[in-house]
Amino acid sequence: MVRLLRSPALLVAAALSLSTAAPAARVVASPKVKGKVDLLRPLTLQRLTDMDFGILGVTTGGSATINPITGALSVTGGLLRLGGAVSPARYAGAASKQTVVLIRVPSQPVLITRAGGTQTLSVSAFTLDGQDKRALAQQQSFTFAVGATITVPAGTVEGLYTGEIDITVQYP
Predict the structure, then answer these.
(1) Which of 4, 41, 92, 111 has a 20 to 30 A CA-CA distance from 23?
(2) Which ranges of the chain have pLDDT less than 50?
């Protein structure tokens, strides 16, 4: 329950007691705080070409490796290069001037699956055409290529094997 006072004398006394309080002195921080912000252009990354190991023949199993610098394909074991357009994955990106970007490729093998089936092949040992940490200096755009090794066991079912490989770029 709230009790209201209707006495004018009490209201005047209460108002006078509030108005006589001395205001607190202002204190300024020393040194003064500075505000700042470093704005960066959002990173963009676009795939230019897919990674393509071409057409391989399998006799006893083996591996095939795409060199990200030259685009050359080398095969080992019982694999034969039969043709097709071999290509490392190629990307183009944009970022702020005078920044550093980090390119990340998978550190673990990635499985790709046979179209119309459940069989898989392992793609691993991902490599870049240079350092994973790139300084952009005055340029805002950059390109890079990614190579890898595919392992094809003996007795692998024929067919087209495809899958997705995550490549990321970030500011450090």
Answers:
(1) 4
(2) 1-14, 16
The neighbouring-strand residues paired with 144 are 91
Secondary element (H or E) of residue 49: strand 44-49
Given the structure tokens 């990354």, which residue do they identify?
45
The string of DSSP codes covering 144-155 is EEEEEEEEEETT
Specify the pLDDT at position 21: 56
pLDDT digits (tens, 9 = 90+) for 17-30: 555 556 778 877 78
CA-based nearest residue to 48, from 88, 107, 106: 88
- Per-residue burial over 37-53, b if 16 or more Cβ lie within 10 Å, else e, is eeeeeeeebeeeeebeb
Domains of the chain: 40-170 (2.60.40)
Q: From the centroid of its chain, how far is CA 117?
A: 30
CA 22 vs CA 17, 63, 106: distances in Å: 11, 85, 67
**87, 100 contact by CB (below 8 A):** no
Q: What is the pLDDT of residue 9?
A: 45
Tell me the helix, strand and coil percentages in the chain, rounded to 5: 5, 45, 50
